[in-house]
Automatic annotation (TrEMBL):
ABC transmembrane type-1 domain mapped to chain residues: 111-311
Name of the protein this chain belongs to: ABC transporter permease
Cellular component GO terms, alphabetical: plasma membrane
Record localization: Cell membrane
Protein family according to the UniProt entry: Belongs to the binding-protein-dependent transport system permease family.
Superkingdom, taxonomy of origin: Bacteria
Organism, scientific name: Bradyrhizobium australiense
Membrane topology: Multi-pass membrane protein
Matching SUPFAM superfamilies: MetI-like
Transmembrane regions listed in the UniProt entry: 43-64, 113-143, 155-174, 180-199, 242-265, 290-314
InterPro entries reported for this sequence: BP-dependent_transpt_permease (IPR050366), MetI-like (IPR000515), MetI-like_sf (IPR035906), OppC_N (IPR025966)
Length: 323
């Protein structure tokens, strides 16, 4: 009697157990990570950007003083030059300003304010623009025409003018009732209303292409509601351009906030961002206290440059024609 051949039984959970880190391996083997490793400039930009975020997160642990707390400020320590100069004093590494604030501590806390306003502004602009773009592209008709005409009108004005208009209207309505946190919220809304158009136009174009494909017709056939089709099926296929726009707009949002603060329409002197610190230091530039404006300006320029380099790399990495 011949022996029966018993096929080897494969446990269904065995491959999953052996590939617990399979997602990490796939990420490391992806074309995007390969492109990232090939560009030393991009790796340096990513490291600098992460460093700025870490400095902002751990500002309270790294700072010599809390520049937002008047009780920790002493006018006797005002206008001290950086530590490596002949008139420098410890522990003021980058010197102090006219109020006795340590410039390094002020940069750390100001960096936190600038990043919070920039990130929240991008989130608000992205949420508004993506929502309107999905509605315009999927529904079409008169709603599409209305949203796109509003977008076309807004594109005729620079973003900084839109932000100044929104900020001015808010201050005229609320007046002196705006505290520092309310001013921050107004800046977020002003920046968000300035940059939503790019998201809306990009998402609308992608949705108009995707909604004619078979998987959308199949989802409509089985009776899925329109919001679920847009969010679950159509939106994921438009995330590539959205990520690129969000990265570049983060730098633009930080610049816009700094510009508003420099013009006196942003954060107050008691809770300064990088733009406010530059405005304050600009008043003492010709008096010889160059460090008050120089170091916040260098920090802002380094942050914007690193984010822009990341945005340029991400745009090229997600472009299928360049692979």
């Amino acid at each position: 009697m011949s022996d029966a051949v018993v096929p080897h039984r494969v446990e269904p959970n065995a491959p999953a157990a052996r590939s617990g880190t399979g997602w990490l391996k796939r990420a490391l083997d992806s074309d995007i990570f390969y492109s990232f490793r090939r560009s030393r400039m991009t790796m340096v930009a990513a490291a600098v950007t992460i460093l700025f975020f870490l400095l902002a997160i751990f500002a309270s642990q790294l700072a010599v003083q809390n520049p937002f707390d008047p009780a920790q400020l002493q006018l006797m320590n005002s206008r001290i030059s950086p530590l490596w100069t002949a008139e420098g004093q410890s522990p003021f590494l980058l010197g102090t300003d006219e109020q006795g604030r340590d410039v390094f501590s002020a940069i750390l806390y100001g960096l936190r304010i600038s990043l919070v306003v920039g990130v929240l502004g991008v989130i608000f602009a992205g949420t508004l623009g993506i929502t309107l773009g999905l509605i315009a592209g999927y529904v079409g008709g008169a709603i599409d025409g209305l949203i796109m005409r509003i977008a076309d009108v807004q594109l005729t004005f620079p973003a900084i003018l839109i932000a100044l208009l929104v900020n001015g209207v808010a201050k005229s309505v609320f007046g002196n009732r705006l505290d520092a946190m309310s001013t921050l919220a107004v800046l977020v809304v002003a920046i968000g209303l300035s940059f939503w158009v790019q998201y809306a136009r990009t998402v609308r174009g992608s949705v108009m292409v995707e909604k004619n494909k078979d998987y959308v017709a199949a989802a409509q056939l089985i009776g899925l509601p329109a919001p679920k089709i847009m969010l679950r099926h159509v939106l994921p296929n438009t995330m590539g351009p959205i990520l690129v726009i969000a990265t570049i707009n983060l730098a633009l949002a930080i610049i816009t906030e700094a510009t508003l603060s420099f013009l006196g329409a942003g954060m107050p002197d008691t809770m300064p961002s990088l733009g406010t610190l530059i405005r304050i230091g600009n008043n003492y530039l010709f008096a010889g206290e160059w460090w008050i404006v120089a170091f916040p300006g260098i920090a802002l320029a380094g942050l914007i440059l690193s984010i822009n380099l990341l945005g340029d790399w991400l745009r090229d990495a997600l472009n299928p024609k360049l692979r």
